[in-house]
C-alpha cells in the first residue's frame, strides 16, 4: 500500500464522514422545517452534501483500496458516474417539483415573507396559440 | 437458543407475511380497480422477497456472503472458485424472481390498459359501478 | 479472509448515522401533509440511499454491486418528473 | 452423434410456436396486413398439430416416455419436457382442435378490424396450452400458465368497445394474476423443502423420503400441503371448478366465438391435466403427502366438482343467452371431470382408478370436441340472427341444415345419447364408480346428466325447431359448415369406436398416472439424467 | 390519527410473533449452506476445466436465466410481448399522431429541458454497458433495456409525446424494432439446431456450449480474446432491443394526451364497434 | 456469528418494518395518488432489502419496474381517470 493509496483512502473516509453528518442534519431539517419550500432547502443539503460528496469519497476509497480486487476501477468509475448523475438530476428534479407545487397551489406558503414567483406569474402574460412545428412538433 | 441474526431474519419473514396478508386484503376487498392493481404489485413483490429469503445464505465465519457472480474468473484458480461456491448465495431463486418480476409487470400493464378501457366505457373505476353482467 | 480491515470498521461506525437519517426521512415521507413533501422526502432518501449502497459495496468488497446505485439514481428522478407533471395539471405525454 | 428426431421435435414444437408469434408483425409488414396473419397462424397450428401427432405415435409405439433436456442440460439442472401417453394424447387433441379453431377464425375474420393482434394472441394461447401439457418442470408450468393466461385475458377483451367484455376480462385477469402469484409462492415452498423443481425428481424424492426418512414426513407434509393447496387453486381457477367458476359464464360469452370454443373446449382441460399431474404423478399414492392429506384434498376436489356439476346443470336451465347456456354447461362438465379425477383415494382398487382416469380422459375428448363444435356452430346462428338471445334465435337453424345437424349432434353427445361419445364417457365413469364401490357418486353422474337435459333441450328446441318469429338474414358460409359436419362425424366416431378407444385410454391411464406409469415417469427422468450427463 | 394506532399494533404484533417463532421454530431461517442444486450452478457457471458441462459465464444468475433455464426466459419474453400486443389491441383505433395546433406550452420548464438534453446519451451508454456486460457483471438484456427506457420516458414526459413522434419514435417503428429483437431471440434459440442441420451434426434447442450428446456444435465462448459466453451475449443484445422498444411502446400508449384524441374516440364508441 | 452480520440484518429488519408500514398506508389510503407514492416508498425499501439479500440482478430489474414504471403508468391512469377512491 503506497502513500498515495493511504492519502486517497483517508480523504475518501473524511468525505464519507462529512456526508453522513450532512445527511443527518438534512434529515432533521426535513422533519423540523414548517413548510414545503423550506424543506426544499434541506433536501438540497441532503442531495449534494449527503449523496454527491460521499459518492466521490467512495470513488477515492475504491481507487485506493487494493483489497477490492481487479474490478475496483469499475467501482470508482461507477461511483463517479452516480455522483455526476445525482449532481445533475437532483436539483433539476427539486426544481420541477417546486414549480409544479407552486403552480398547482396545493401547498400554502404559510410563514411567508415574500413570494416573488407569485408576483411574477400574476402579471399578465401573452400566451398565444402557436402553430406546432416550430419547435416542439410538426405535421406528420 | 437463537442468535441475534436469526431473530432479525425472523422479523423480516414475519413482516413479509403481514405484507402478504395486507396485499391480499387489498386485492379482494377494495372495490377500486386502481387500488386493486397497486395491491397486486405489492403482492407480487412480496412473493419475490420470499423467494430471495429462501435462497439467502448466512455469513460463513464472518465473511459476508456474496452475490452469485464469480468476479475472479480471469485468474483461472480452482481454489477461488471453491471459496466462491462456499460463500455465494443461491442463484436459482434469483433467476426465478427475475422471471416472475417480468411476468408480473406484463400482467399489471395489461390490467392498467383494461382499467383505462373500462373508464372510457363506464366512466368509473369502481367495481361496484362496473356491473353489467349477472355474475 | 477473516478479520476486518480499517475501512470496514470505519464504515460500520458510520452506518448508524445514515440509518438514523433514513428513519427520519422515512417518517417525513410517510407523514408528509402534501404529496410534494412525500416525493421530496423519497427523493432525498433515495439519493442518499444510492450513496449508502456504494458505501455498503465497499464494506462487502463487492465492486460489482455498483450498477444498482446508478439505476436507483436514474429512476428516482423520473418519479419527480411524473409528479410535477401531474401537479401542473397536464397529461404525462402532453 | 446420431440424430434423435423424436426428442428434437418434442423440444422444438413449443419454441417454434413462439418464433411464429415473434415474427408475425415483421412479416405482416412485408406481406400485407389483412389476410397474411391468419394464414401464418394456420401454418403455425398445422405444424404444431403434425409435430404433436408424431410425438404421440412415438410415445405410443415405444411405450417409453420422451424426455428432452433443453440446451443439453440434464433435467434438474436445466428445464426438460417430459411426454408420457397421457399428456401426449391431450396435446394431440388440443393441437388438432386448435387447427379447426384457426380455420374458423379465418371465416370469422370480418369481425376483426386489425387481425394481426388477434392471431398473435391465438398463437400465444396455443403455445401456452402445449407448453403446459409437455413441460416436466414445475416453474416452467408457472410461466406457461402465464402465457396461456395473458393471451386468454387479452382475447376475452378483444371486442374492446363492449363493456361486458372489458368487465369479464377484468374479473378474470385480477383474480387470475393473484392465483398465479400464490402458485409462485407454492413453488418457492416446494423449492425450499425439496431443493428441486423438476416434476420427475419431485416424484422420486417424495417416494424416497416416504421409505427412508419417516421422521421427516410430518414437517415436510405440512409444507407440501400448503404448497399443493396454493398450486391447486390456480389450476382449479383456470378450469373453473365450482367456487372459482364465477369468471367463466361472463368471460366465455363475451369473447369472440372461436376464442370461446378454445377456452371452453381446451383451456379447461389444462387445469384438469395439471391437477392430475400433481395429485397422481408428483404427489401420488406412494408419496409423503399420501397417508395424511391426499385423501382430504381429493375429497375436497370431489365435493367441489359435484357441487359444480350440479349448479352448472341447474343454472343452465335459467339462461336466456345461448353462449351463456353453453358456458354453464362447461361448468357442469368440469365438475364431472373433477369427480372422475377424485377417484384415486386410498382403498380404491387400482383397476377402478385406472378406469376412472380413462373415463376422465375420454370425457375430456368428447366434451372438448363437442363444446368446440357447439360454440362454433352457435357462432354461425348468432351472426345470422345478430343476437344471442334464445327468443331472437328462434328457428334460425332451419336456414342452415348441415350446421343444425352438427349442432344437434353436439348437444346429444353432451347430453349423453347412445351412439355418441358423450354417452360412453359417462358410462365408463359410472362403471368406474361402481367398481370402486362408490354408489352415491355413480348416481350423481346420472342425476346431473338428467338435470342438464332440460337446459340442452331448451336450447335445441328454440334454435332449430321453434317457428321463426322474424326474418333472419342469410350469411355466406364459405365451406365452414363442412368443417362443422366433420367435427360431428368425429363425435360419432368417438362413440362408435368405443371398445378400442376405451381400451386405449385405460392403457394410457395405466402407463402414465398410476403405479407402473409413475415409476416409468421417474425412470425416464433418471435415464435422461444419466444420458445427458454423458458419464 | 387512527392509522398510527393501527400501525403501532401491527409492529408490536410483528415483533412479538417473531420472537415467539424464532425461539421455537428454526426452520424458516436460511442456513450457512445452500442446496445441492445451487452448488452445482455456482460451481459450473464458469468452469473451463470441463468444456462439456459449463455455461462459460461467471455470472451465475444470467447463465441460469439464458442457458440453464433458457426456456423460461424465452417464454417470459413472450408473456411481456403478448401483454404489449394485448395493450395495443385494446388501444386500437386511438390515433397516435400529431394534432394540428395546441394551446400553451408543452412540457416542463426550460431548466429541466436543458438537463434532459444532456442525460440521455449517458443513460444509453450506461444501459448498453449493463446489457452487453450482462454475462460478466450483474445485469443483462432485461436490466439494460429497462435502464435504456429511461431516456425515451424522460424525453416523453419532459418535452412531450409529439417531440418523440416527430423524430420517428412511434408505435410502428418501435414495434418493428421489438419484432426484430424478438426474431433475434428466436434465431439464437434455434442457432445450434440450424448450424447442426447445415453441417449434419446433432444439436439441442437453446444449446450454448458443447454437450456430451452434441459435442460438435457450440457457439464461441471467446471472440478475439474477449469472453462473450456463446449465446448469452446475443440473447442479451436482442433482449435489450426488445425490452427498450417494448417499454417505449407502453409509455407512448399510456401517456397519450387523451383530450386531443377524445373527439375521434367517442365517435368510434358511438358507432358501436361490432354487434 | 459476527457483529457485522447482526448489524446489517438488523438494518434489513428495520427496513422490513418500515415497508410494512408503507404497505399498510398504501392499502388504507383513500387518495389514490398518495397510495401510489406510498407504494413507491415500499418499492424503494424492497429494493434495499433485495440489495442486502445479495441480489444485484434482481435490483437492476426491480428498480426500473417498481420505482420507475409502476408509478408512471398508475399516475397516468389516475390522471386519465379519477383520483379519489369512493368510500
Question: How would you sum up this structure in a few lines?
Answer:
The complex is a heterohexamer of chains A (140), B (135), C (94), D (535), E (275) and F (87). By secondary structure, chain C is mainly α. Chain C contains three helices and no strands.
Description:
The complex is a heterohexamer of chains A (140), B (135), C (94), D (535), E (275) and F (87). By secondary structure, chain A is mainly α. Chain A has one domain. Chain A is 71% helix and 1% strand. Chain A has helices at 3-32, 36-64, 72-104, 116-122; one strand at residues 130-131. Residues 126-140 of chain A have low confidence and may be disordered. By secondary structure, chain B is mainly α. Chain B has one domain (4-134): Orthogonal Bundle (Helix Hairpins). Chain B contains four helices and no strands. Chain B starts with a helix and ends in a 13-residue tail after the last helix. The relative contact order of chain B is 0.13. Chain D is mostly helical and 535 residues long. Chain D has two domains: 1-285, no CATH class; 290-496, no CATH class. Chain D contains 19 helices and two strands. Chain D has helices spanning 5-31, 36-62, 85-107, 115-134, 138-156, 163-194, 199-212, 217-238, 248-254, 257-282, 290-317, 322-341, 350-385, 401-415, 421-436, 439-465, 480-496, 498-512, 516-533; strands spanning 66-69, 80-83. A two-stranded antiparallel sheet of chain D has the order 1-2. The relative contact order of chain D is 0.10. The model of chain D has no long low-confidence stretch (mean pLDDT 86). With 87 residues, chain F is mainly alpha-helical. Chain F has one domain (3-80). Chains in contact: A-B, A-C, A-E, B-C, B-D, B-E, B-F, C-E, C-F, D-E, E-F. At the D-E interface, helix 1, helix 4, helix 5 and helix 19 of D face helix 2, helix 4 and helix 9 of E.
